[in-house]
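Dear colleagues,

As part of the handover before I leave the project, I'm documenting each prediction I ran so the next person doesn't have to rerun anything. This entry is a single chain, and its sequence is reproduced below.
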Amino acid sequence: MSNSEDLEALFPLARETMIAGVSVALGPLKVRQFGAFTKVAEPFAGHVISGDYLAAVVQHPDAVIAALEIATGQPAAVFDDMLPDEIMSVLAEVMEINLRFFGQRLLPMRDQLRERMRAIAEASTGQPPSPVSSAGDTTSPPSES
């Protein structure tokens, strides 16, 4: 078994959770969900990154509910009647699943593809490619002004 498979066995990327009495399969966001999710999550992302889910829910309830609606497929009305601790729990699960997927699958794949391209470029020109920096080539969030 690879390290990724070992981790997935211990911490599955997808899981079933109960939301307002309904069993819902939570998994990593699909590509079609990324744009909408990141847009609505922007106001509370800093709170989540710092681990303050309470601040996220209390200060940005509409954005949190919109993000959960996108991530879970459940209508916003389901979340409107939930208690803040229940919302925090669902939000934590959604974020944990997606951060684990990002760290276990996307970053390693990005690095493998980058190395493949570097090898192809070096084989074709005889020299390693010069490093190029881009906005998508950073793993740390931009600092706030």
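The helical segments are 3-10, 31-49, 53-59, 61-72, 76-80, 84-125. Residues 3-125 form one domain.

All the best with the project,
I.
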